[in-house]
Structures
1.
Amino acid sequence: MNTENEQTNPSAPAPDAGSALSPLETSDTAFIREKIKARPINKRKLFRRTLVTGLLAIVFGGVACLTFLLLEPFFSSRITPEETPEPVTFPTSDDEIQPEDLYADDEEIATAQEQIVAETIQANIEASEQDRIDAAVSTALARLHLNKNNASELYRALKHVAADTERSLVLVRSATTQTSFVGGTIELDGEVPGLIIADNGLDLLILTYASILDTGDDLTVTLNGGEVEQATLKMADPGSGLCVLRVSRRSLTRETQELVAPAPMGSTITDNLIGTPVIAVGSPIGIYPSVCYGMIASGKIPMECADRALKLFATDIISDTGMGFLFNYDGRLLGMIYPGTTEGLDKNRILAWSISESVNLIEHLSNGSPGSSLGVYGTDFTAALADAGDLPDGAYVLRTEMNSPAMSAGLQSGDIIVSFSDQPVTSWNDYVKTLEAIPPGETVTLEILRQGPEDYLSMQLTMSTREGNP
């Protein structure tokens, strides 16, 4: 009997009376519960893996750093090649006589004699014409009357020459800070004039006084136009008290680069320097900038410097605190003011290093190349030495430095050097020039003459050049 709520599904299959229902089949919803336990941590194994990972990281990092260090210069040199400064060389003055110019063969002598004869004949032909010219010149000079306007024009011309040197002049300053005995600080500084003497493509090279290095390591230069730049030491020579500083061209403004230029080199190779007019610039009276006019008042005075042939000359300019540079009226460098004094000369007169004897030293300083030294003080024969006896040609040894190669080899005061590594030596200047061409560490042989009981004895001394003054 069916009720109202009963519904019959005629299509539903009838249950099998002989089958039994499982518990899952008798429930509308079923849940499966499972508890997962965490695996216990193996601390020893974890520590071992961490240690291995760290060691591998260190190894790979070291290999990467080593590879970078080895390959970086190679790739850098290919991608951005490093600029190298051009070596500094100063041209030889036309007035200087080279050793090879002192020799001539027979054909050259004959040609020169023929030319002299021809010039003599031509001079005789033109003598009468020259006499007329000389007479006209003498008449013109007799009619010429100099006045204050002529003097003003002369000094205006000199002022222009002095002004042109400002392109090369700089003021070098140094500064350092020291602690005083009461615990405060003291600012020490100094200043000296300097001169731009070369441009190697990367730096401006400035010749100045090595004394500026004693007042501080922070070096600055004030260039023409007022720009101030940092400077670093290229090389110093304690024997002469000179040094060369460098200023990077890249740090200069375009305007300053157009306002500065190296000073042109002059020559002091001449038979007689006395009476040569000069312009002193820098701080010749102890104030920068200042200018003095004068003339060279003495011939060259040799200075005792080991393995050098440096010479001074005196001027008629009065100053006992002067520093700076001497130029001729063509604006060419003739010398650098010597801040000291020398025996026999008025201490109030400005002295200067002669440029022709100093140019090789300045070149070494500019290139930062150490020169060779044997530790020999020498000179040419003076009149007093020549009068003492019949002396052979050569370089006269005054003394040797303590513990120098020359002293160790047995060179003595009074020896005469006649040959240097197969090169003949007839003067002290020959010795110096030969040494300047030899690099440090090279073995050389000096042939000397030493006074014996009756005559000079010939000896050979072997020694190695050392790295010494530039």
2.
Amino acid sequence: MKRSLIYIVPIIFSIVFCSQVKAAISGNCVNCHTIHNSQDGSDMATYGGTSGENPCLTRGGCVGCHAYGAGSGTYNVENIGGSEVPQVWHTGTDLAAGNFKYLADADNRGHNVFAINQEGDEGGGSMFPLPGCEDITATNFSCAGKYGCHGDRNVTDETVAMKGAHHADDSTIDGRTTGTSYRFLKGVLGLENNGDNPWQNKNPIDHNEYQGLIAPPNDASATSPGTGGSISGFCAECHDYHDDWTESGHPTDHSLPNDDEYTSYTTYSIIAPVARVILPETPSGTVAPTGTNDDIVMCLSCHGAHATNHYKLMRWDNLNNWSGCSVCHKSKQ
């Protein structure tokens, strides 16, 4: 009896301890993993329309799970065996990052990740090479890892670069690991909207919050993730306009001026969102153009992250429609 207790107590301790850890994903392990890639004589690693061995015993790669059904997913979030999985290619309401489906209409509307490019023509050649990432090409651009955006960018394989992130305790986003970084963008900070409308920027009080900085030109944030985990600093890893905005166009990591036309931007806009120096505990619908905390211009103020229905990932048709510009530039209304 004593021996039985010796074995049982550690098991109970392990179960209780593990149950207290908040994981970013829930559901049965088999939803995403397979041990032998076989069940009742059928392959298990088939997400994405392929079958074979995958790193970390996964049933598919990034696209296989996040563009479920080989890119034919109907909803922006699919339920896979009880696990909710956001879909980067879908019909219906776009996610906050946009929708890679727009690449099927024009390959200059998004980041041409090779595995997602439906035309099979090495992505949108006009988008390469990237200014600060010449080693990323049309044929190796991936979702994660060395040639992508998510995960550990010191690791080449995109699945291995994401290892453990989906199971991390993400109750605190501190940017120290992939799992504790905003949307698995290692080093980036933010507030993830995981409430009633997860992965969406739904309205002024139901949206993601992005980390920004108040920084002069050539600030350290030009090298991602920069001081403070800036989302614009992250973008600047490849799009290196960020370090000298006086020469290259719109400022990033710079506060809206507290005078003239900008003072009218007081309600958060999902058409032209702003970042924050101090992230709120819950999504805020208030903007304060005071040159301080709540009104930071960022790359995502004008652009989507994955793909949009407009040229160069613009959030609106800036050639024929000033609706987005006029959010900040009230004189354009």
